[in-house]
Predict the structure.
Amino acid sequence: MWILFIICLWNINRAACAVCDIGRFGSRCQYKCHCKNVCQDDGTCVGECADGWFGLQCQYQNVVYFYKTAVSPINAETLFTNNNVCNNINSLNEVSIDWSTTLPFSWMRIKTLNNGALSTLRVSIKESNLESPCTNLRFFQVDAMTFDVYCDCNGGMTTLKLAGDSVASICTILVNGGRNVALFQNTSQTSTYSSESNFGSQKAVDGVVEPTCSDKGCSHTTNDPNRDPHPSWTVIFDQPYAIDKFVIYNRKDDSQFRLIHFSLEAFDKKNTSIFRHKDQSDIYELVYTIVLPAALTVYQVIISQTEFFDSDKRPYVSINEFEAYGECSPGRYGLYCVPCTGHCDSQCRAIDGHCDVCFPGYKGDKCDEACPPGKYGPNCSGTCSQHCFTEYNCDNTNGNCAPCKPGYKGGKCNEGCTFLAFFCLF
Ligand SMILES: [Ca+2]
């Protein structure tokens, strides 16, 4: 108990100290559990993730679950069901999936019965019937049968297509929609209707889409006729995140028209506006999905309204739930988006910190292992000179190892001394 007290007092490990409400976890209790059954204190699920979620602590949205409208051919439907059954469809060499809206593509998780066949996989995206291939496919093994597939695609997709002989071996496809980083972040609004506990700004990031907002449960600006003619709602994240999709849930009970023609603006940490969206439709939506043209590093989002409709005499901003989907900003990784390890020479992979290219002298999945004694340089591929006095003083980054064994000189001890000079200094 005392040890825990000291850990908490000095803030060494906040996750160990936080006591979160049931269904939440994290250093600030900022994450919602997405487990089918029991959720442990650190968010790990006992058993499977809830439908629609996968990956690290089940925090990654599977857009197949939320946005799928059709699969072609129809008998490929089972490939998009996230379960433990792995029945591949032998005759298949092409499969496509349509979305209800334009979505960004980042990566997908594939379960396959034949790892070797994946090299023949082709991925393309379609928008407005214009098909464009995704290039530079990269495969990262998750377990014996599961791979995360990354590739470079231009623009958004209304259809995702997989083709090639390898499709016949695939048994599950999950398509990443990012994780919601807006949950329980700092929020404010220009005014509040009724009371903070009923209609405060936090209600829009509490992870709950309420069936009714009439009593409580949604953010809502004031109806005081003398106040707030230009209402807005603001969220400021604990750190910048790479966001590619915003989702706004409208209230479900009444007055949904209040969001018609709303504006959304995103800012970076320098308070520079980096993305603006103005709703154009005269008909309200129950769920607005706003896709960014590319992932942007966002720190703050403001939703505002200047117009009013129906019987209203003033504009309001009322939000049932706001979500911001994306990843850690470049150079960070993991659930808490900590910096990539110091010896990574490229941006590490956000989900697990894997680094593609290490600085010379380091190796390992996260570039956190120095080369073993006697090795140096990029990928630890250099071998220290056998004329180093000892392999233990060979610099792992550049192979320099002076002092040398008698008879040799140079930074890498690979130059022989001039004749007769047994001990040479130059
Ligand atoms: Ca809510």
Remarks:
- Residues 1-9, 11-16 have pLDDT under 50 and may be disordered.
- The chain has four helices and 32 strands.
- The first helix runs from residue 2 to 9.
- Residues 148 and 348 are 15 Å apart (CA to CA).
